[in-house]
Design brief:
Strand content: 5-15%
Number of domains: 1
Shape: globular
Number of strands: 3
Number of helices: 4
Structural class: alpha+beta
Order of helices and strands: HEEHHEH
Strand order of the largest sheet: 1-2-3
Length: 143
């Protein structure tokens, strides 16, 4: 089940990114909700919020390490819990989606542009949602 989630997230992420690259000019906002939400094609060579720009090799290594750590955590811990498995699948799928970008393009395609937040993508969202879910699961498990 987790493998399917990972593949679905990474595949959907890549399909959306191809649509963005092929249909939106670089850096030009396309308003969806005026002054709130745009689709804006951005090339991100860094990580969250565009920090550490130009360190693609380091970011590739970091992505691989994250995927390995979450995979080891997933298979070494005896948690037969759907919430835990979903969180791991979201994190791995999102990390894999961005890893594919870094290896194939040398940058990550970002496109979700909230006027009050740095531009991001589906893969970023899955990593964040999965991370929050994992933190909630671990906090509850520790009680």
């Amino acid at each position: 089940m987790i493998f399917v989630i990972v593949i679905l997230i990474a595949a959907l992420d890549q399909i959306i990114k191809l649509l963005i690259i092929n249909n939106f000019p670089l850096g030009l906002p396309h308003p969806i909700i005026e002054n709130i939400f745009n689709i804006t094609y951005v090339k991100n060579t860094g990580i969250a919020f565009g920090i550490f720009k130009g360190n693609n090799l380091i970011m590739i290594i970091l992505n691989i390490v994250i995927i390995i750590i979450i995979t080891v955590l997933l298979y070494s811990m005896d948690f037969d819990n759907i919430f835990f498995k979903l969180s791991a699948g979201f994190i791995i799928g999102g990390a894999l989606g961005n890893l594919i970008d870094r290896i194939n393009r040398g940058f990550i395609v970002d496109y979700l542009d909230l006027s009050f937040w740095p531009t991001f993508n589906l893969a970023d969202s899955m990593v964040v949602i999965g991370g929050i879910m994992l933190a909630i699961f671990l906090l509850i498990k520790m009680e």
